[in-house]
Design goal:
six-stranded parallel sheet, 48% helix, 11 helices, alpha/beta, 2 domains, 330 residues, Rossmann fold, six-stranded mixed sheet
Length: 330
């Protein structure tokens, strides 16, 4: 009886030791990666668009944190709308688990967004909305409010009654539509201004430059130009600098490429509406993981923006925003 008890006790001790060993070994093993197949379709893969490089840095950070390996793809340039549509159509045929989409055209991408969800693929939109309610969540800057801030910033550096124009990127993209409306509303809140119109650069530096050059030549009383994205702002600023009119034509723009920051330092640009593309990339992937794992998500997630001027650009909080850690050579 005593021998049986001793054997039983020994077996129990061995069993507990084995369980502890298994627990310790498992706890020391790296967490298993999720097997989700997620595709991110951006507007532009060109490294010249620093905004999308920073978005990708945010996606990469989230990917490491959540143990996924999303594929990032898209057209080379933002104006290649047909190419983005072709890419998305091919992705739908591949049936991934989720698609994160930055639509280059509000209307044209809507039927494809519907097809994504109809195919049983989770959809999160980023940066630019589409004319569809298919997406589980939309992660972006509040572009109406950002546009208002741009209009208000222009009014702050111009006397009432001045002549103002807008140079935007692509006519049918949601960011362009919302920012234009917001900018005009921001100007109107501050007084009466002579608005010449909105001119579209097709997201090329050359056309943005040409628009600004022509506006300055045809309207000697031109007081300011609002650029609604990185490319439009840089093209306008180059034209104003080359014309020697930096003290006469005020420039307010969007985003924070290295060239835009240099123009801000030189007082060629008076204010920038700086989005938070790193946050946008990170939050979009985190939101997709939540959708795939059945957690509730917000229909719209505002990733925020800041008004940066020559006066506040050296504040530590804005320095971190203007110079995020990313590799532009990716």
């Amino acid at each position: 009886m005593k021998i049986g008890t001793t054997i039983a006790a020994s077996l129990f001790t061995i069993m507990i030791a084995a369980l502890i060993t298994v627990f310790v070994v498992r706890s020391l093993m790296p967490a298993q990666e999720n097997s989700y197949d997620i595709v991110v379709v951006v507007k532009a893969m060109s490294p010249d668009m620093e905004f999308w490089q920073i978005v990708r840095a945010g996606i990469d950070t989230a990917a490491r944190e959540f143990g996924v390996e999303p594929r990032v793809t898209g057209p080379w340039l933002e104006r290649d709308i047909a190419d983005q549509m072709r890419i998305l159509s091919e992705i739908i045929d591949e049936r991934p688990d989720g698609v994160i989409l930055a639509a280059s055209d509000y209307e044209a991408l809507a039927p494809l967004a519907d097809r994504v969800v109809a195919a049983g693929i989770a959809l999160v939109t980023i940066d630019s909305a589409v004319a569809s309610d298919a997406a589980a969540s939309f992660v972006a800057t509040d572009n109406l409010r950002a546009g208002e801030r741009a209009g208000e910033a222009m009014a702050a550096v111009l006397p009432e009654g001045s002549t103002v124009a807008i140079v935007s990127h692509i006519e049918e993209v949601a960011t362009s539509i919302d920012r234009e409306y917001g900018a005009l509303r921001g100007l109107a809140r501050r007084g009466n201004y002579n608005f010449l119109g909105t001119y579209f650069s097709e997201n090329t530096l050359e056309l943005a430059y040409a628009h600004a050059e022509r506006l300055m030549n045809e309207h000697p009383d031109l007081g300011g130009i609002i650029g609604l994205n990185e490319t439009s702002t840089v093209g306008v600023a180059r034209a104003v600098r080359d014309a020697g009119k930096a003290s006469q034509v005020r420039v307010v723009g969007f985003d924070h490429s290295q060239e835009e920051i240099a123009f801000l330092e030189q007082d060629v640009i008076q204010a920038l509406i700086v989005q938070k593309p790193f946050n946008m990339g990170y939050v979009s992937l985190r939101t997709m993981i939540d959708v795939l794992e059945g957690r509730a998500v917000e229909q719209f997630i505002d990733t925020g923006s800041e008004l940066v001027t020559r006066e506040n650009m050296y504040d530590p909080v804005f320095q971190q925003l203007l110079f995020p850690f990313f590799d532009p050579a990716r």
